[in-house]
Amino acid sequence: xxxxxxxxxxxxxxxxxxxxxxxxxxxxxxxxxxxxxxxxxxxxxxxxxxxxxxxxxxxxxxxxxxxxxxxxxxxxxxxxxxxxxxxxxxxxxxx
Amino acid sequence: xxxxxxxxxxxxxxxxxxxxxxxxxxxxxxxxxxxxxxxxxxxxxxxxxxxxxxxxxxxxxxxxxxxxxxxxxxxxxxxxxxxxxxxxxxxxxxxxxxxxxxxxxxxxxxxxxxxxxxxxxxxxxxxxxxxxxxxxxxxxxxxxxxxxxxxxxxxxxxxxxxxxxxxxxxxxxxxxxxxxxxxxxxxxxxxxxxxxxxxxxxxxxxxxxxxxxxxxxxxxxxxxxxxxxxxxxxxxxxxxxxxxxxxxxxxxxxxxxxxxxxxxxxxxxxxxxxxxxxxxxxxxxxxxxxxxxxxxxxxxxxxxxxxxxxxxxxxxxxxxxxxxxxxxxxxxxxxxxxxxxxxxxxxxxxxxxxxxxxxxxxxxxxxxxxxxxxxxxxxxxxxxxxxxxxxxxxxxxxxxxxxxxxxxxxxxxxxxxxxxxxxxxxxxxxxxxxxxxxxxxxxxxxxxxxxxxxxxxxxxxxxxxxxxxxxxxxxxxxxxxxxxxxxxxxxxxxxxxxxxxxxxxxxxxxxxxxxxxxxxxxxxxxxxxxxxxxxxxxxxxxxxxxxxxxxxxxxxxxxxxxxxxxxxxxxxxxxxxxxxxxxxxxxxxxxxxxxxxxxxxxxxxxxxxxxxxxxxxxxxxxxxxxxxx
Lengths: 95, 629
Ligand SMILES: Cc1cc2nc3c(=O)[nH]c(=O)nc-3n(C[C@H](O)[C@H](O)[C@H](O)COP(=O)(O)OP(=O)(O)OC[C@H]3O[C@@H](n4cnc5c(N)ncnc54)[C@H](O)[C@@H]3O)c2cc1C
Ligand code: SF4
Ligand code: SF4
Fold this sequence. Notes:
Chain A is mainly beta. Chain A has two helices and six strands. Chain A has one domain: Alpha-Beta Plaits (2-Layer Sandwich).
């Protein structure tokens, strides 16, 4: 297994998760993201690359404006995942 | 393959910079009106200037389609005093708004907002913005008017009875505004950061005749020459927060809102006021779990709050829904805290959506929270994870998340001084939205942008186009490219944290002349010793580095202004240990700051320097009034 020397991963490190089966690499998310978190993939048609995850503003634009439903999913960092309670059962869930 | 690390793992090398590098290239653009910042105010300014026949260029650091604090959405169009359901008089309402917060309001901006934001809203509808419940989805909701199909919001009691706040579908706004800009021939320059203003003969205090810019992807240098320039780049989002990660460090300001316009106008010699004003960031630092931050604070608007055992709490975040006697974050919460400590209420609290009438629940969850700017992705995330508002209670983070430190502040309210044309103290330079002192919100930005656009366009009809100073341009070029010439030194994140630290120590909860002096000395040290070592390895990091230099200037202005106010003020969040008296009458005035020949000049203006709002507005807008009445 080849191990590369890379710096630590920032937090958030992966604000969006792409689905390569659905994403057509149109780069709408790259062009709409207000923080320029992504760069286009060097191979045309492939999913963008997350370059500046630590600059994400959690605005959701990448997901909201993607023309291919399911191609990208927002991925809340763990410390931002909220909780709720089912009133009937008292069971607690986390988003 | 989606992350940088995965890319390296698969390809065996880091990705090459995806855009052509053009540090050595330059583009020159000539236009009548230049707009800096394509957020809410900027888009409206561009549209209205273009409608008046001006040639318009709009420069936006992000992407106009979603940039700015209102880019993702907006759920409330506030202070719509001239809407047909309103129960207040627009001029009186503007006066009220100006008088609130101790009279430090921006009377001119408020009058424009109250007189024109309803027209603005109707224009937005024509462009494709959704403002009414046409499909009768929310029939029966409190505040819905069946004739106009407007949803009047219950928000902000005692404003409730005034019918001035309209619920809107703000996720539709920014794309509609961008489309309209395109239709009108506005030339949009996305991913261009304006870096400096050009003045006639390159002189500080001279007429503003354009701006320089940097392409944040290619590094290309841009020169914009204009007859009039409108600054719409908002304020500075993060001056006291050291964290450059997590939730974008200010959840009410996108990263691009970094004080560039303030720094540019300062260097050009424009006059500012209320720069000493700041407040603790309550819900907005990214450390918190709030709606804007990403988790789920149900204590919003009309959602009843219950404790961990389902017992109803005598509080709602937005008072007005039946519980008028409790205020938002004041004694209501401290009394509840005491009750929690005595065991009367169990933590955590929850927003009890299931107990709400179905239609109110629907409008709150599916419209208000979804349209609330960055709220849509939160609502969608919860929904996909299985949250059902008819069955589930959303956790609330009051008390358990703790209070913000007094050192986590934000600059709120400082901005450019303007006249009744929204012209700044410099000829050729106009300002709108959050770039003004004591700004309002979304509809304030929209209405003032629209107003500044038409005033600037009229100015350009008779204004000439002076030649820009070559020396000023080359000095700016040297300034902005310095960080790419180094491969080592301090990076933008460290510089950001260092400046924020100085502000936390020396211009925060404890304010005295000696602390201010230490603050200015420390910032000077940063300027002289550390800023010259700033390095950036690509155009994106160069942009962030330049933002920090704006932040450094912004911080210095704040301390200069703070020194000049030798009194404390509860309205300005300003407490001086050496001048403890709160709001003494002789200090009930605006303190202004600007640079003249590189020297700091402070001045003052009386609180109602805007004069009689109604009379002045009407005297300056006869054509507009004729056109619209
Ligand atoms: C989560 C959230 C919810 C909100 N909800 C509401 C609501 O419901 N109702 C309401 O009235 N208000 C709301 N607001 C506030 C509202 O969005 C702002 O008041 C409004 O966007 C301010 O408009 P503006 O034009 O002054 O600034 P912005 O819209 O922020 O625009 C400033 C623009 O300047 C650009 N810029 C900055 N520096 C440069 C530079 N150097 N060069 C080029 N461009 C630059 C930025 O990228 C940005 O696009 C909300 C804000 C947030 C964050
Ligand atoms: S995630 Fe969506 S917007 Fe982004 S490249 Fe793929 S298809 Fe296009
Ligand atoms: S949520 Fe917003 S800031 Fe974050 S990556 Fe997506 S578009 Fe960019």
